[in-house]
Amino acid sequence: MSDLHDSNTETPVWAIFGDLMAALVGVFVLILVWVIGYQLELAQDLAFETEQRQVEQQRREQLEQALADPLASGRISLRDGRIGISGSVLFALNSADLQDEGRELLGSLIGPLQDYLSERDELLMVSGFTDDLPIQSDNLHFEDNWELSAQRALTVTRALIEEGMPASLVFASAFGEQQPVAANADEAGRARNRRVEMAPVPRLGSDD
Fold first, then answer.
1. How confident is the model at residue 206 (pLDDT cuts 50, 70, 90)?
2. Are both 128 and 48 inside the same structural domain?
3. How many domains does the chain have?
4. Which domain holds residue 111?
5. Fewest C-beta atoms under 10 Å: which of 121, 125, 161, 169?
């Protein structure tokens, strides 16, 4: 009688198998949900990156259109959204005094730049750069390339404001001999590195 009772109380094999299958299905569903969620996240990231690239491309095209005339004349360059002006157009060697040609060029940029900045609610960063040659010892105006690049950036910034650019839309920065665009191996390369760049940048706290 005892053996018969024990055999009747044992859990049937099909019930154990059913529980196992239910657990496996549950695990499979969890994995499937995770995979679908991960794929959706990847798709959203890809869509965001694509949108950002399109926005950046549109910004470059808008800037090119705004500066079509000075670009066509070769007086400025546009690279990665940064407007480059050769230092020789703006300043004499080792000087931060703006030349007449440079002031005239800056004045011609005010209109298109101000329209572009206002449409996008952005600011204009004016950056000064030099070559890697040290300041000559007889130069009493600047201690080093950092100071020279800073003064040139300030000179251009002030000239833009004097020509009509609102002071609230522009600021200056200095990079000295850092971030060259050419090798400083010869005069041609050093001349390219002596430059001022102007770049539209988002305002602090802007979502753009």
1. low
2. no
3. 2
4. 76-202
5. 121
